[in-house]
Amino acid sequence: MATIGATLASVRPGEVVIDLPYRSDLTQQHGFLHAGVVTAVVDSACGYAALTLMPPGAAVLSVEFKVNLLAPARGAGFRAQGRVERAGRTLTVCTGELRVVDSDTVIALMQATMMAVEGRDGRRD
Amino acid sequence: MATIGATLASVRPGEVVIDLPYRSDLTQQHGFLHAGVVTAVVDSACGYAALTLMPPGAAVLSVEFKVNLLAPARGAGFRAQGRVERAGRTLTVCTGELRVVDSDTVIALMQATMMAVEGRDGRRD
Amino acid sequence: MATIGATLASVRPGEVVIDLPYRSDLTQQHGFLHAGVVTAVVDSACGYAALTLMPPGAAVLSVEFKVNLLAPARGAGFRAQGRVERAGRTLTVCTGELRVVDSDTVIALMQATMMAVEGRDGRRD
Amino acid sequence: MATIGATLASVRPGEVVIDLPYRSDLTQQHGFLHAGVVTAVVDSACGYAALTLMPPGAAVLSVEFKVNLLAPARGAGFRAQGRVERAGRTLTVCTGELRVVDSDTVIALMQATMMAVEGRDGRRD
To answer: Which residue is closest to B86 within chain D, CA to CA?
Structure first.
């Protein structure tokens, strides 16, 4: 997240907000944020939100996510929110969104499954 | 795609292959390719694959995609493939995948909906 | 919907609620509502919600949906809600959920894309 | 599956085929198979495919699935196929499809996550 200039705006149990200022090098040819960047930020918000409800020492992996792109990601700044919809022992289901800060336009919606893994080596199931 | 060092490896009607060499600045803390980069490359392969079957002058927009992350994106190089499963007048459904070049391990699977738009300004529906 | 005993509980612009009483013939071996029935009800709620914001004479088609199953669908009755997140000229993005009426437990979450089609013959793009 | 007249056509490690003859009571108003029935059959094919690679005594749960509806489900008979794309200790990723038997038209594509659970009580994570 640091690479793209994103910062944690708020962390509460089951809910995380990440801010992303506009940067021209994150956009595609039309000046819109690239779908990969949109996904990365919302996925991170969902992953951190899941992590807030996992046991200490757990790491989180994205199992899968589904993204609907609703509007062009154009604006001076963006805000991603991730929310835990259901926290299980192994799997956590989250929803997330990315909004334009100025206009509050929703750019993207995510529905994702996160997995708690022991340790921090990021190994997959 | 140029920003992340990706290159078109092959373009055929309904099928596009994109190569992505490893670059340390595209990885997260464990040396794996970030989920956003994985998504961006496979989404691009799917989008270009859809575009090959669209009328001249059309542009393509990602309506939505679903990604399953199957294995850590670790390797010297990656290859994304996008395939058109059904080309409609307005909507095109694609499947895509990302593999590690060395081991042929599948890292990610995508199922996506693309939309043809008139003109090239990237406006959304 | 009539086949499975579902009834429209409320219809507002962009939001539709459908009630589904428990029926043993809709369950799988463990007495839970089958995933196909869960999907059908939430898909219908999303489709009707989309239709409320489409021009008169339009019909609605489900382009795609993504469902997370969060808890076993067990209870005396179920309530599905579909909401429009973004209504476009051609495509409408909805979110939906199914809850157990007694406990308010969320059984399933849906994120779906609906398409407006002219006429009522259900032809696809 | 018995309720809707579906039968197992073939079971191999990691791949299951289910046949579904046309029945008028499974259709919606236009004589097409309902999206819920389409989903149920492909979900079952994916679930059984996952089960073939799980340890003895394990049961399988659908964690989530994503379905693209490509063409109207109209025909004298339908064939669903589920394939394991990656079998993990806990999670198995499958792809599936439903075809019209006569024309080989693909009606639906699924990408799904299945979970192995101990015992057979269908409890969720």
So the answer is: D70
Contact indicator for B40, B20 with CB cutoff of 8 Å:
no
Q: Do B125 and C91 lie within an 8 Å CB cutoff?
A: yes
- Report the first-to-last Cα separation within chain A, whole angstroms: 24
List chain C residues with CB under 8 Å of B63: 63, 91, 113
**Nearest chain A Cα distance for residue B47, angstroms:** 11
User: Per the CB < 8 Å rule, is D95 touching B109?
Assistant: yes
B86 at D interface, C-beta within 8 A: yes
Interchain proximity C88–B113, CB inside 8 Å: no
Amino acid at D103: S
The predicted pLDDT at position C124 comes to: 52
In this structure, what DSSP letter does residue C44 have? H
Q: Which of C18, C24, C26, C34 to mutate to test the interface with D (most CBs of D within 10 A)?
A: C34
Task: Express each pLDDT in C39-93 by its tens digit.
Answer: 999 999 999 999 999 999 999 999 999 999 999 989 989 999 999 999 999 999 9
Question: pLDDT tens digits for C88-118?
Answer: 999 999 999 999 998 999 999 999 999 999 8
Does D69 reach chain B within 8 Å, measured CB to CB? no
Q: What is the DSSP string of D62-76?
A: EEEEEEEE-S---SS
Q: Which two tokens stand for residue B71?
A: 């294995």
DSSP secondary structure letter of residue A26 = G
User: Average of pLDDT values for A108-125?
Assistant: 79
pLDDT of D39 > 80? The answer is yes
Question: Mind telling me how many Å the CA of A87 is from chain D's nearest CA?
Answer: 9
Q: Which residues pair with B75 in a beta bridge?
A: none
Q: What is the pTM of this model?
A: 0.94
Q: Extract the runs of DSSP E, i.e. beta strands, from D1-125.
A: 7-12, 15-21, 59-69, 77-87, 91-100, 106-117
Least confident of A34-48, C20-34, D38-52, D75-89: C20-34
Answer whether A61 touches D (CB < 8 Å).
no
